[in-house]
Amino acid sequence: MPTILNTSHRHSNSIDFGDSSADFEFSLPSFRAQSNAIKQQSNDIFNRLHSIDEDAKFVEEVARAFPDFPLVANQRCGPWYTPPSLPNSSPQTHAYFKSTDGHTHVWSFSLRRPNLHLVPLIVQHGGIVLTDSTRRGKRFPDALSKTVPLWCATLNAALYTPCFCSSSPDGGLHTPGSAVSPSEHSSISALVPGWAESLKASALPLPAPLSKPLRPIFLTPESSSLPVLDPEELGFYPVVLVSASRYVPDRVERRAWGEYVQGSGDDHELWSEGLTPALFWARREALLSSPRESLPALIHSLVSYPLPSSTLTPTPAFTPSASSPLASHLLPSSPSSPPPSEPYALLSLTALPPPSPSTSFSTPTLHLPLPPGKKGQHGFQLSLSPALDFVSAQLRAGRRVVIVDDAQGTDVAVGVCVAAGWRFWDEYGRMELDPPSPDRRATKPSIACRLQWVIAARPESNPSRVTLRRVNEFLMSNPGSRGAGAGR
C-alpha cells in the first residue's frame, strides 16, 4: 500500500501520489471507446457490488487496526462499505458530512448538519473511524478532504479555545496536501473563527469543552501502512477518515470477476434497483455468488420480499435530549422505529396508511397521504394546517406526537416539527398552546432556531431545502391564523 496521508499543510509539503499518465496516448476513437466502456461498466450492478466488497476489505482492515474506535459510515455512500458485523461497527450512529459543504469557494460549517452528537462519542472512545468513498478521478471525497477537517477546526475553535489560533499546530485546520492546495487551505482556515462564533450563537446545545483538539487522519487503500494511534499518548483525538475505494484514473481495471468501479456506492438510486446497504450486508454472500445474468432477478426478489427486521440493522429507538425543548413532545420518526412506551399520538405523512399501532393504549392517528419526493411537496404545504391542528389537540391532551414520513422521519416529518416548534413554543422554549397574537411574526432566524432544536433532539434530521422553504412560506404568511383551529 502506498503512503499514509497523516499529513497536512501544517506539517509537511504536499505528497506526490505519482499520478503520471505518461503511458496514455490520446486518440479520438480510442478515447470514445474507452469512455463508452467505462460508462457501461459503471452502470453494471454486478461490477458495483463486487467492487464494493473489494473496497470493504480495506475498511475492515482499518477497523481492526483501531478496535477501540467506533466505526461510523458517512451518509449516504459510506454504509455500502461499512460491514455492520464488525465488533466496533456502529451502524446506528448517524453521520452526515456533505461534500457540497467542502466545495471550493462555498465551504461551510453547516448548522443544519452539525454532527455534534459525534463529539461525546469521540471523547468517550478516544477517537473515531469515519468511512466514505468517491468516484473516479479523486482519492478523497470533498466530505473527507475538506468538510470534516473544517468541522474539526471549527469545533476546536469553539470548544478547545485555550490553544486555538489560526496557525496552531494543535487546534487549527488539517487537510490532505494531495487534495487541497495551500491557497485553498489558507482560505478555509480564515473562515474557521467566524464559523465557531456562528455555532456558539446558534440554538444548538454545545458539547462539553474538549480537553484536547480533534484532528483528522487521512487513509486510502494506497496507504503504505496504518498509523499507531494510542489515545493515552496522543495530544489530540484522532478522526480517522477512510476513503474506501482505490484511486483509478480514467481507465478500466479488470478483475477476475469483472471490472472494478471506483466509488461504486455513490448515487445508489441510479443503479441499486432498490437494494439498500443493510440488505446488501444481510445477503452479501448470496448476492456476490450470484451469476451476472441471475443477479437482477435475485435483487428483485430480495427487494420485493424484505427480510425480517431482526436480520437487518435495527432502526435506533429515539432517546429524548434534555437540551431540546421539543424532544419530550414531538418525535420525527421512521415508521419502523420502536414506538414510545407511554401513550402517544401518530401523525403519518406517508403515501400509504400506517399499520395500526400494537399498543395496550389507544393511539389517536391522523394520516395525511403524501407521495414521496417532489410529488408530495405541494401536498405537504396544504397538509401543514391540519397537521398543526392535530398536534395542538394532542399536546393539549398531554400526549407526545410521533410524526412519520417515507424518508425515515428525516424530511417532511421534520418540517412539521419545525412548524409546530415555532407555532407552539416561544423563543425561550416555553410551550404556548394559545393562538399567537396578531403581531407575532415568523422570521428566518426564529424558524432556524426551531430547526436546530429538532436537530439537537434527532441528529438524523435532514429536511430538503424545498421542505424548509414550504415551512418558511407557511409560517411567514399570516402565521396568526395557522394551526390554531384545535386551540379555539
Instruction: Estimate the mean pLDDT confidence.
Output: 85
Number of strands: 10
Helix and strand sequence? HHEHEHHEEEEHHHEEEHEHHH
Strand coverage percent: 5-15%
* Poorly predicted tracts of residues: 1-26, 314-320, 481-488
State the shape: globular
Please explain how this structure is put together.
Helix 4 packs across helix 5 (182-201), helix 9 crosses helix 10 and helix 10 (412-424) packs parallel to helix 12. The chain has a 4-stranded parallel β-sheet, with helices on both faces. A 4-stranded parallel β-sheet has the order 7-10-8-9, covered by helices on one side. It has a two-stranded antiparallel ribbon with strand order 5-6. The protein is of the alpha/beta class and 488 residues long. Helix 3 (118-125) links the parallel strand 1 (71-73) and strand 2 (128-132). The protein has 12 helices and 10 strands. It is globular, with a radius of gyration of 24 Å.
Keywords:
488 residues; alpha/beta; 12 helices; 10 strands; 9% strand
Question: How are the SSEs placed, and which strands pair?
Answer:
Blueprint: H1 28-42, H2 45-65, E1 71-73, H3 118-125, E2 128-132, H4 142-159, H5 182-201, E3 214-219, E4 237-243, E5 253-254, E6 259-260, H6 277-282, H7 284-289, H8 295-304, E7 330-333, E8 344-349, E9 365-367, H9 377-396, E10 400-405, H10 412-424, H11 444-457, H12 465-476
Parallel strand pairs: 1-2, 2-4, 3-4, 7-10, 8-9, 8-10
Antiparallel strand pairs: 5-6
